[in-house]
Design a protein that fits this description.
7 strands; binds zinc ion; five-stranded antiparallel beta sheet; alpha+beta; two-stranded antiparallel ribbon; binds ligand K1U
Length: 173
Amino acid sequence: MAILPLLTAPDPRLKRSAAPVEGVTDEIRVLMQNMLETMYASAGIGLAAPQVNVLKQVIVFDVASANDKREPYFLANPEIIWQSETTVMGEEGCLSLPEQYAEVARPERIRLRYLDKDNTVQEMDADGLAARCIQHEMDHLLGTLFVDHLSALKRGIILRKLQKAKKLQPAPA
Ligand code: K1U
Ligand code: ZN
């Protein structure tokens, strides 16, 4: 298993859309496992394949890991089949926008359909942090970042900070 390199904003590759998988094969299961390891290694609660430069509709999440437990989920081709009209504000971070956080409005509850690790169609209801994390990860599959939900002013401030931080980084050997 492997820790995969993460793309960080502003990187135009994060703005691309991912394609559905034809099925959850051994290759996709290896990707899912490597994504989970990468997520845990970065202290994240979710990760989407485009963040590791793979344009496939695959996400992993584990909101229990925020409380030092392990309850990982592996999803391919996720679709939201119902969402509450009620929206809630909540703070979001992103491993592709290091050290940047902002309040984002999202539907409070969702129901989704997806393929699990065994290539079986499943449905899941989610609320709270899980609903927020799943919606954030599904945004990545469309090339959308949490800053795209903010005003142009707030988005510009965050992206300029990240650009500046990248310029200060030493060039890779
Ligand atoms: O980059 C990512 O997509 C992962 C991101 C997921 C996420 C966090 C918070 C709200 C919505 C989606 C992260 O895990 S960033 C790390 C982080 O902010 C966090 C870590 C532990 C608990 C709570 C937040
Ligand atoms: Zn993210």
